Amino acid sequence: MADVGDLASELVGDVLSSGDALSAAVKLLVKGGVTIAVFYLDRRACQQFLEEIQTLFVRLTKLAYLTPLIPTTQKDAKTAQMGWIMTSAGVDELFFNVYADIKNTPYRSELSADRLKIFGVMEPVVVNLNSRSKGTQIRKRLGATWPTQHREQMLQHINPFKSMPTIAKKDMGRFARAMVRKALKSPEHTDLLLARTLGLAQFCGLGEVSLADMIELMVHACHYESTARLYLAALLGVHYTAFTGYALVNSLNGQVLGSLENPIKKFAKLAENFSSSLMQIGVVEKGKPRIAHAEDMPNVKFKIKGAARAKQGEAIYMISGWAEALRHRPKNHPHMRSMARDLTVGLAKDVGKSFVPAPLLKKMTSLGRNVYKQDVHGNNLYYSSELETIEVRIRRTPGGQLVGKISQFGDWRPAPFSGRGVYGVRCGCTQADPAKLMTGSKFNDFPLYHVYKLRVGEKMQIEYDDTFFHWTAGDLPMILFWANGHITGTYIQVAGECLHCATSRAYGVGCNLIIAGGW
Question: In the beta sheet, which residues pair with residue 446?
Fold first, then answer.
């Protein structure tokens, strides 16, 4: 197998005589990339992966977001950077084209190109195909373009990679290959996967990435998303959960949710610092919480922790984002849970997986499901059979305030809000289009699955080519909970976005799980 440096030198010679820099970069990717990709895929799959990903590079090059990076002399070719580099348009636009929450932030005026450059996130990313990096050291290079003081503070106190599970290289390769293939099968959003990958490299301060680094970025994108959001929020002096509200502002008629802080431990103590994030939701009446607009919060249970010793008429507060989210629960939706049904359906599903034929099993997974709405094209927007119970526990802070936090979402204890996921955008579909009516159990040859409810201890197993819809009945608090509860490539459908466009865009960014709101 030829050395990449030798191949680069040969290709630079071709460019000097022909002037075709794009062809040289593509040849180095497809031929020289084998030396890296074989660590992740077998030889045949490796070649197919490189042929497929080169299409994405060529597209972004023709759209003027990338330009080939070629050494000026053959003498330098063996060790110099060679591949692609972001253009000024790529630096300014790629990341924002994918992450609607960052694009819509009212702080965008404060995130001018000049200011972001000072923060080290407006540097053009180099895709160096001549790099020796095999992806193993990428996390140690996080924040390489950030100012030193910001990098040290971020990685010491907030590091999303501390608990990241290890994935075998062969599995990483198969997931990355599936992501590229889905992007190429996306009807309207093929260019978003590479924009997402390079945008995350840019805002996570990596500066330069190899082909192996890009595979790592794709497969662990959820962790890099958290890093980028945490860093930007820290620089702006806001809590990173505020970005979520900006992603949903168009879906909530211009309303911004506010902070979604919900720490697991030491909540009462930490809530002392939430003064700008708290809003009054009710008062104490005869030792119990009387919540304003409780009729807009079906199946939400508020309880004052006994040690709080609540006083008559005392104000009750809650973090603003969750307080507003609780007011966006479906009001015409059944919310009486049945233990008998839980056990029956759960047992039927478990037994069915082993003994029931596949066509019948698919019907069993939809037991008790109702379709109350359809999108403009006639695609079903499912509502699960019961609205989950959400519990809010009210505690007293050291300063004396009564503050509520969500302690339970259905059967699940909340995990820390992570800042993961790609938020959808309104698609603009106003008239039925027969081509956007989704039928069957596949979308452009990739299998589709539906999840309506998970039980405690149940894990979602997602294979490389799978796409799962996790239906949340238009229940905004549960949408937010599940969007941050899954450690996978997550896409969040928003109000005003049809199912076809949400699926197309999720494919385009390489996500394999769609939190489908049905709202």
Answer: 443
Q: What backbone torsions phi and psi does residue 438 show, to the nearest 5 degrees?
A: -90, 125
* DSSP code of residue 109: G
Range of weakest confidence among 39-53, 166-180, 265-279: 265-279
**Tokens 């539906």, residue located:** 450
SS3 1: coil
CB 225 within 8 A of CB 203: no
Cα distance between residue 176 and residue 182, in whole Å = 10
183-194 as b/e: b if 16+ CB within 10 A: bbebbebbbbbb
**pLDDT 10s digits, 266-280:** 888 888 888 788 999
* 3 state SS for 171-206: HHHHHHHHHHHHHHHCCCCCCHHHHHHHHHHHHCCC
Least confident of 161-170, 249-258, 387-396: 161-170
Contacts of residue 468, defined as CB under 8 A and 6 or more positions apart, other chains included, come to: 448, 449, 450, 451, 460, 462, 512, 513, 514
Token output for 8: 């680069």
CA separation for the pair 415, 464 (Å, rounded):
25
127: which strand partners? 84, 209
d(CA 265, CA 259): 17
Residues 281-299 as b or e (16 or more Cβ within 10 Å = b) = bbbbeeeebebeeeeebbb
Identify any residues that bridge with 374 across adjacent strands, giving them in sequence order.
380
Which of these ranges, 108-117, 265-274, 390-399, has the smallest mean pLDDT? Answer: 108-117
Element (H, E) at 157: helix 148-157
Take residue 464 and report the two structure tokens written for it: 């490389």
490 contacts 422 by C-beta, under 8 angstroms: yes
Beta bridge partners of 315: 283
Q: How many CB atoms lie within 10 A of CB 61?
A: 19
Task: Give the whole-angstrom CA distance, residue 316 versus residue 291.
Answer: 8
Residue 300: strand pairing partners: 390
- Of the candidates 201, 187, 250, 252, the one whose C-alpha atom is nearest the C-alpha of residue 437 is 187
User: Which pair of tokens denotes residue 145?
Assistant: 């373009």
Q: How far apart are CA 476 and CA 286, in angstroms?
A: 31
